[in-house]
Design brief:
The protein is 73% helix and 0% strand. The chain is built from ten helices and no strands. The radius of gyration is 20 Å and the shape is globular. The mean pLDDT is 81.
Length: 222
Amino acid sequence: MHRLKMPPTGLAILLIVGPSLVWCSEFIGSGEVILATRTGAILGSSVLWAVVSGVFLKFWIGMSGARYTVATGEGMIDMISRVPGPRNWGVWIVMIAQFFGAVIAIGSLANAVGVFLSNLLPVNAKICGWGVAIFALIVSWSGEFRILKVIMSTLIFIVIVGILYVSVYAFPGWTEVLGGFIPGGSVVPAWALDKGVDPDPWKEILPLIGWGAAGRVATVTG
């Protein structure tokens, strides 16, 4: 392993930024893809403060779990198993919550991917969703991740390019963007109300913060 004698400075820092973007992109999960997309589509840039809050909470959850593991040599789930009370009651709560969360997350992703592919291919959205789910199951069962790695790298590149394009094309202006970092300015628009969205914006904001922050929990408790 090559070790750096001196930390990079100046333009050499860009050599770290590139791999860091790829590493961060691989942590894009169901919360970011489904909830962030939905909340952003409904409430726009007025929920930027919620995104920052979720990232802030995720950082401290991740740091706490990582430091606990380094200091004790065990995962957080081992600590939860020793919580006073009935044997492993905390582990059972985590497992049940993770089970329902995983079902909802995977189902949402399969549905979203199915709808996306059905707009590109002359195939029904449900068939596309099932096809993607079966493909993922086959790859996981076989343990052959090289093909998936190539596909994921390609999709990550497309996501980054798409985000940059949408950010430039639909940029609302600096006044609205900066105002989005101040809580309390979110209002559910009329078109969303007509589609059955609840008029209370907190019912969109709280799941975004909670799921975004909890994404790190699955990493440190596994």
